Amino acid sequence: MRLLIFFLLIFLFVSGCNVINPNEEEPAYIYIDSFRFDTEPGEGSSSQKITELWVYAEEKMIGAFDLPARIPVLGKGATDIRIFAGIKNNGLSATRIRYPFYAPFDTTYSIQGGETFYCKPRFSYFDEVLVQEKGFESGNFLVPLGGNQGTFNVVNNDALVFEGDRSGIGTLESGQSLLYFKDDQNLDLSGGNTYFLEMNYSCNGRFAVGLLSTTGITIKKNLAVIINPTTTGINNPQWNKIYIDLGLIPQQNASADFFELYVEALPKPDNGKLEIYLDNLKMVEWE
Length: 287
Hints:
Elements (H helix, E strand, L loop, with lengths): L1 H19 L7 E5 L3 E2 L14 E6 L2 E6 L3 E5 L3 E12 L7 E3 L3 E2 L1 E7 L4 E3 L3 E4 L3 E6 L7 E3 L6 E5 L11 E6 L6 E9 L7 E9 L3 E9 L2 E10 L12 E6 L2 H5 L5 E8 L8 E13 L1
Parallel strand pairs: 1-10, 2-11
Antiparallel strand pairs: 1-5, 3-4, 3-6, 6-7, 6-9, 8-11, 12-22, 13-16, 14-15, 15-22, 16-21, 17-20, 17-22, 18-19, 18-21
């Protein structure tokens, strides 16, 4: 009897271990170390700041990954993989999102545990996206606002230009108190819709970007984001790209007649010369 109980206890112990530590399914892996982003005619520059990839298998999220990434995928047989391009909304690491205007990359792999699949996703704008880009190839399109003491001009020095032949440069000299310019194109924006401003920039001091809303004779300044320096020097741009979420502003100003983009900067804390380089300003929305 004691022997029977002994073997029974051993059986229960082994069975319990199998429940606690079941045989784990071996995943396959998708390896991604690069991707492509392409634009169609009329969509402007192909510059991008995709910071991570959001990966789904059979519509279930696996995770968001910086590159290079070795991504585990469980399952067997034909498995649909969908990959979204992620960005830092308003340039903030704490607000990473799937960029709504970039179409996902779709593929299918015949999954077998232990195998590695090499993938190079290709991204583009959705067909239903409207892109309106303004660069400085044809000259400066920013005009000064009240109180402005700075200048905004076009630069064509290859060492300073982001791409193409020309970029814009805003300057606030030591002793000047305000750089304040707008694009006087009227923007028809509706509350509840999604709008982003994509922009290449370099700066050696902080500057603000937002929308002026005009309602009758009333003009209101609506701040969207304050952008931090990319460099400390002058005549030495260090270019970056930002995606600025503008959707909340028309929602908060539903009765506005129209909106205009503005750029504003105060003097640097050390009162040195302030430089802001801009290029490829894209207003992006759904058609």
